């Protein structure tokens, strides 16, 4: 039996309006639609996170709000601009209660984290709104490896 499931999600497509700080960039109209589709895709896969670790940027917050409006979300400043090893450390510190954890962040960190945990999985890419489902037999505190059991991208659907 799999001990833990980590869903690694890149925020949905964001706009780049002039004069708006990167942290405050909103989702585009297609990003808003895709964020709702992310929620439907997670439900279709039977994935309901016990905990969501999310970057505090406007685009990640909105992605989570649309995808999982009732989720238990912890906004973690360290997720914004984090490298893969920093994201892994955050997951390791998440405690033992959560069986399914959703990490919502930014590229390149989220894509590199999946590659770090499942190096033989191939690139797969991480366009905006994409997620990978990584199963592991490790406890969060000792997370080192996993296997990608599903991927989803709005570009593929």
UniProtKB/TrEMBL annotation:
SMART domains: PGAM (SM00855). InterPro entries: His_Pase_superF_clade-1, His_PPase_superfam. Residues 14-33 are annotated as: Disordered. Residues 21-33 have a biased composition (Basic and acidic residues). Gene3D superfamilies: Phosphoglycerate mutase-like (3.40.50.1240). Pfam families: His_Phos_1 (PF00300). CDD domains: HP_PGM_like. It comes from the Bacteria. PANTHER family: OS09G0287300 PROTEIN. This is Histidine phosphatase family protein.
